[in-house]
Amino acid sequence: MLEQETLEVPAAAAAESTAKAKRESAKPSRAVEPHLLSADEIEVLYIEHRTLLLFIASRKFHIADGEAENLIQDVFLSFLQTCTRIDNVRSWLVAAMCNASRHFWRAQGRTESLPDDYANACDPKTWGTAEEHAMRLTMSKVV
Q1: Which of 88, 106, 131, 143 has the maximum number of C-beta atoms within 10 A of its C-beta?
Q2: Do residues 55 and 17 touch, judged by C-beta distance below 8 A?
């Protein structure tokens, strides 16, 4: 009997916190036209959503924090340039962050990093310089 009572308390607390989270996420959001927002309203939106967007880029897409910060700036720039009415700002920003993160990895796939011994490598154009110089000397002696 005692075990059942102790098990019910955490279950009730978990159910209460889940219900609270659902209530908070179900808050109606007002429609926004980003290009008409004041600087203070933009700052509030940035501060409110920055942590979530950073989490998405860092944890879900495994992007370094510095690059994730750059992506957040890009997402907010796109948000401010949007001339259409946005009904749910949070959803729009999350979707934009996911798309920006995917684009980041697509762009990274097209680049190739330098080898680890890059500092010790010679310029490939100079590999045949000695042979070319020897050929010029030979040709000048013949002529």
Answers
A1: 88
A2: no
- Per-residue pLDDT tens digits for 67-82: 999 999 999 999 999 8
Q: What per-residue string of b and e applies to 71-107 under the rule 16 or more CB within 10 Å gives b? A: bbeebbeebeeeeeebeebbebbbebbbebbeebeee
**Tokens found for residue 32:** 């926004």
**Residue found under tokens 């259409």:** 84
Stated length of the chain: 143
DSSP assignment of 14-54 equals HHHHHHHHHHHHTSPPPPB-GGG--HHHHHHHHHHHHHHHH
Segments in the chain forming alpha helices (H): 2-25, 39-55, 65-81, 89-109, 129-142
Q: Which of 120, 38, 131, 32 is nearest to 83 (CA)?
A: 32
pTM: 0.58
Answer yes or no: are the C-beta atoms of 101 and 60 closer than 8 Å: yes
Question: Are 92 and 78 a contacting pair, CB within 8 Å?
Answer: no
